[in-house]
Design brief:
Layout lengths: L3 H57 L3 H14 L6 H29 L9 H26 L5 H23 L4 H9 L2 H20 L9 H39 L2 H15 L3 H19 L3 H28 L1 H6 L9 H15 L4 H7 L3 H26 L1 H26 L8 H24 L3 H19 L8 H6 L4
Helix pairs in contact: 1-4, 1-5, 1-6, 1-8, 1-9, 1-10, 2-3, 2-4, 2-8, 2-10, 3-4, 3-8, 4-7, 5-6, 5-7, 8-9, 8-15, 9-13, 10-11, 10-14, 11-13, 11-17, 13-16, 14-16, 15-16, 17-18
Length: 498
């Protein structure tokens, strides 16, 4: 398997972008099936359970996934690959123990309160908890290959195989007339399969790069030192990940609690559409994370700044057209999910604008983490969660899902501004080049104007939406080609880690 430096960030980013885009498309298709077959109320129940599943899964990771990416990539950069098997064992053991605790606690809670999850059996809840823990182990195993510089396994398994298996399972279930519980079962069932595949890949890569999947003999003092350093970073990251996943789903839960399952279903679809644009950020994060970690480990600050600038420009160039289309044609996009979902058009426009601004900050969250500032990120995300919950509790009773969208938009903008200050001023990593402004101007000036003119002239419908996308994409690419040097795309393609 080629090292990331041999093919560059562009290759890693492109692979993860394709995989992430495929996963996002499949995820939206899945949401459309659920919305059309179960309706807004059934979709609301479905997404509320998915929210709990995702929260449990991310909390159970304990931050070990990010820790492995950081420490395995650092071990690769400093020539200490023999340490990797011990790092993996150090990461996996607490996750397994924590997972057992999650299942036991879930069983105890459902036994004491059998009506807590209406319409779902006690056995279903316990099995769902076990599968959520398996989902956390998938992330941990995939982080091993990411740390080694493998850019294919993560998108193939996490972004393509898992969503596709879920889509096929849910389609079969709804075709047979299954209800919410059956749909959720089909959604969770592929997790063990992907876990087995991810574990096999992790073991093979350890044998290939480290010589063995078994930890080498070492003195107890050394083992304690490695474990202490790893969990000092990862435990903080684990708490941060729990806060982040709450930030992603808490508004859906609050909307469902204050308004109705129907409104929660509409708002959940709105957030899934807006977050589909995060595929750009996720691809950049996965591609850049190991390289940023390696550059900072070697003290190559200028290389880190160059990576930051080039990737941010590419993120704006790729993501902003998507968010502009969402903001202008939100009602047409939401109509694809079934009757009633277009009521979330204003909320979608609000979230799309906020996501566009967050994308313009680039990979600041990754830089903060790979630079070892996990405690900073924990403080940032905790403050953001508190702000988000407070705004939701204040605005949802007055404005419904539009209030939730405003709360989410304000939260993400404030959080992003804080992290940008920390990275650019406190860490001294400012992005190089003027290509960011070229990408931003091109996206707003060209895509924005053509989209608004199309809506004003032809209205908003699915055919108009699709036609506008085709025309805008063709013009955008045609204009971008002669500007490729000023956009920083050529430099990104040519970049290699030092």
């Amino acid at each position: 398997m080629a090292e990331p430096g041999s093919r560059g960030i562009a290759w890693a980013g492109a692979v993860n972008l394709v995989g992430g885009a495929a996963g996002s498309i499949v995820g939206l298709l899945l949401a459309a099936i659920v919305g059309r077959e179960l309706g807004t109320e059934g979709a609301g129940t479905y997404f509320l359970v998915v929210a709990v599943f995702m929260i449990v899964s991310n909390v159970a990771e304990l931050g070990a996934d990010t820790g492995l990416v950081r420490y395995v990539s650092a071990a690769r950069a400093t020539g200490r690959l023999v340490d990797v098997p011990h790092l993996v064992r150090t990461a996996v053991r607490p996750v397994l123990l924590g997972g057992v605790l999650v299942v036991v606690v879930s069983a105890a809670i459902i036994r004491a309160h059998p009506d807590l999850f209406s319409g779902l059996s006690s056995r279903f809840v316990v099995i769902a908890a076990a599968l959520a823990v398996m989902s956390s182990l998938v992330a941990v195993m995939l982080s091993v290959s990411r740390g080694f510089g493998d850019v294919l396994t993560y998108p193939l398994l996490q972004n393509i195989a898992l969503p596709m298996l879920r889509l096929i399972g849910v389609f079969v279930v709804v075709s047979a007339g299954g209800g919410v519980a059956a749909v959720l079962t089909a959604w969770m069932a592929p997790v063990p399969v992907v876990l087995v595949l991810a574990t096999i890949v992790a073991v093979v890569m350890m044998v290939r790069h480290s010589g063995s999947a078994r930890p080498r003999p070492a003195r107890p003092a050394e083992l304690r030192r490695v474990a202490g350093e790893f969990w000092a970073f990862s435990a903080t990251r684990g708490v941060t990940a729990a806060v982040e996943i709450l930030l992603e789903w808490v508004d859906v839960i609050i909307v469902g609690a204050i308004t109705s399952a129907e409104q929660a279903g509409i708002y959940a679809v709105v957030t899934r559409c807006a977050r589909a644009g995060e595929v750009i950020q996720q691809a950049a994060r996965i591609a850049v994370g190991p390289q940023i970690s390696a550059a900072l480990a070697k003290g190559a600050i200028e290389e880190a700044r160059e990576i930051y600038g080039l990737v941010t420009s590419a993120m704006i160039w790729l993501a902003w057209p998507f968010f502009v289309i969402l903001a202008v044609f939100g009602d047409a996009v939401l109509s694809l999910f079934g009757p009633g979902f277009d009521a979330g058009a204003v909320s979608l426009a609000t979230l799309a604008l906020a996501m566009g601004l967050a994308t313009a900050a680039g990979t600041v969250q990754t830089i903060l983490l790979m630079g070892g500032r996990s405690t900073w990120q924990l403080a940032d995300k905790s403050a953001a969660l508190a702000l988000n919950v407070a705004l939701n509790l204040a605005l949802v009773p007055m404005w419904g899902i539009e209030g939730a969208a405003v709360a989410w938009a304000v939260t993400i903008i404030v959080d992003t501004a804080v992290v940008v200050y920390q990275v650019q001023h406190l860490m001294g990593l400012r992005p190089q080049g003027r290509s960011l402004w070229v990408a931003a101007g091109l996206s707003i000036g060209l895509v924005g104007s053509l989209s608004v003119l199309s809506r004003l002239a032809l209205g908003s419908s699915v055919p108009v939406l699709l036609g506008t996308i085709v025309v805008v994409a063709a013009v955008y690419l045609a204009v971008s080609f002669p500007l490729r040097h000023r956009l920083g795309l050529v430099a990104l393609l040519a970049h290699r880690s030092a």
